[in-house]
Amino acid sequence: MRRSDRKITDPDKMLAIAEACDCCRLGLTEETGAYIVPMNFGYEMQDQTLVFYFHSAPAGKKRELLQTQRSISFEMDTGYGFLERDAVCACSFFDQSIMGHGAVRMLETSTEKRRALGMILAHYAPEHARKFSEDAVRAVCVFQLTVTDWSCKEHEKLLPSRRMTGAVPNSPNRPNAPNGPNRPNAPNGPNRPNAGCLSGAEMVQ
């Protein structure tokens, strides 16, 4: 990482940033180049190893690529904010991001799939009942990504001489935006600061 001053190495803070993320983007490869897929996710630590869980349709391009690529990359980000200054080149953007690689394994048994689906649901709706019908479990593809290496970067230092302006997503300047003050119970809203934003499309993908 070139900007070592922005590197986060504290495991607890790295996990806190992962918890704050809504989406994990998987980096697959195909003949024409990179194939990036945004996914809902769940996660846990297993003996100091970070493990992500994902679900997908049982057939399709993503599933086909996953079957041929047991090691893939991933990226996730959160904590956005635009820093406006009088000089255009002095403007900046605050964010927190995680990147890494991992080994993919398809989950086959009903027990494994139910546990993984529960992890995903817990990330977005921790108080929701985790009940999955056997038909639904049988019909969905569930897989895990065991992380082999990952790094975390943060750019959020705001000095007194700087000022944040503009309509930043989810800010008071956009009260009706997702997670804005007019949606206090939305994922990541004021009443759920640590929850994630669930994409209905990905839940059935």
Explain this structure:
This protein is of the alpha+beta class. The protein has two domains: 4-164, Pnp Oxidase, Chain A (Roll), CATH 2.30.110.10; 166-195, no CATH class. It has helices at 11-20, 61-68, 110-124, 134-139, 200-203; strands at 7-8, 24-30, 33-39, 42-46, 49-56, 71-83, 92-107, 141-155. Strands 1, 2, 3, 4, 5, 6, 7 and 8 form an eight-stranded antiparallel β-sheet that branches.
Question: Which structural class should the secondary elements be placed in?
Answer: alpha+beta
CATH topology of the largest domain: Pnp Oxidase, Chain A
Level-1 CATH class name of the largest domain: Mainly Beta
CATH level-two architecture of the largest domain? Roll
Give the fraction of residues assigned to helices.
10-25%
Rg? 18 Å
| Residues in β-strands, percent | 35-45%
Say which CATH homologous superfamily of the largest domain is assigned: Electron Transport, Fmn-binding Protein, Chain A
Number of helical elements: 5
- The geometry reads as globular
Average pLDDT rating: 78
Total number of β-strand segments? 8
Brief overview:
This protein has 2 domains: 4-164, Electron Transport, Fmn-binding Protein, Chain A (Pnp Oxidase, Chain A), CATH 2.30.110.10; 166-195, no CATH class.
Please write out the topology.
Blueprint: E1 7-8, H1 11-20, E2 24-30, E3 33-39, E4 42-46, E5 49-56, H2 61-68, E6 71-83, E7 92-107, H3 110-124, H4 134-139, E8 141-155, H5 200-203
Antiparallel strand pairs: 1-8, 2-3, 2-6, 4-5, 5-8, 6-7, 7-8
Key features?
205 residues; Pnp Oxidase, Chain A; 2 domains; 5 helices; 8 strands
